[in-house]
Known about the structure:
This protein is mainly alpha-helical. Helix content is 57%, strand content 9%.
Amino acid sequence: MTTTNFSIHAYMQLKSFAMDILKQGSKTWVTEVLGNLETMWDGIESTISKSGSASYIIPLQQFIFKFLMKSLVGADPSVSQEIADSGYIMLDRWLAVQLLPTVKIGILQPLEEIFLHSWAYPFLLVSGDYKKLCDFVKKEGKEVLRRGETEFGLSAEDSLHNLLFILGFNAFGGFSVYLPGLMSRIVSDKTGLQEKIGTEVKEKAGSTLSFDSVKEMPLVMSLVYETLRLSPPVPTQYGRARKDFILSSHDSVYNIKKGELLCGYQPLVMRDPKIFDDPESFKPDRFMNEKGSELLNYLYWSNGPQTGSPSTSNKQCAAKDYVVLTTALFVAYIFSRYDSIVGDSSSITAVEKAQ
């Protein structure tokens, strides 16, 4: 087997493993999202009543960590006090040493490039955290790890580290970047969006919120898509050309050679004025109706069009549909519980319970 064939085969194994984790997790996903949202908002309400305002950044991360650990790993963080209290912080630190060399901080240049982007940070900085997470997953996520070995031919180590990568980098990292921005847009709204969403949720939710019920909420879904358009969780994607091909834009043509490295910058792609009217503006109803549905062909936040489907033969985000529907469920829960929430980019100052 050649090196190239091996790498493709290994990628397909890992993608299959990731998709299986999501499939198995779907059995408890909605229940865990809703249950942990209830805990999160109970805590926020309690803090507001005591202090007059509540930061939602840490509660969001705790919510994300707990529901993902239960859904993806099949492990309850509460069985370990340290993981329950600090697991999300361990993942934050692990993510930080990987992402800091690549992300824009906004300090005076060239100081940022010289001191932050010129080297990789040593794993030693987070090795203790990572070992604690590994030990917890080994003990509490045995069934998922077993499937990685017996059904997908992965070694015990590959199963463990790829499960942690899916949990920590793909899922926790993505939601931790994306949901605070969504919250900020909702709580700072001055256009009547909250009232419109609340009306739609109350009309469409039925007796129980579910993935099926949020699919019937066009404004909620459009809000999710528009937030992904303007604030994709992963702004850049990379890939090597597997063959020679022609890459075309509206007005240019490029000859791509096999082996060349390509980079896609999503914030630019999804602000194309020839596709999106007034592309810099946030329009929560942009993706509604027939015209809006056609725009989904150009929504590329997941390393492929929103109308596409992830598979082992492409590099589209395996959890593409879970991200969209989980976020829609997140929004729908808020407006099934509240008529309005008021705040800013990091905190909530008031909530009005739904009538």
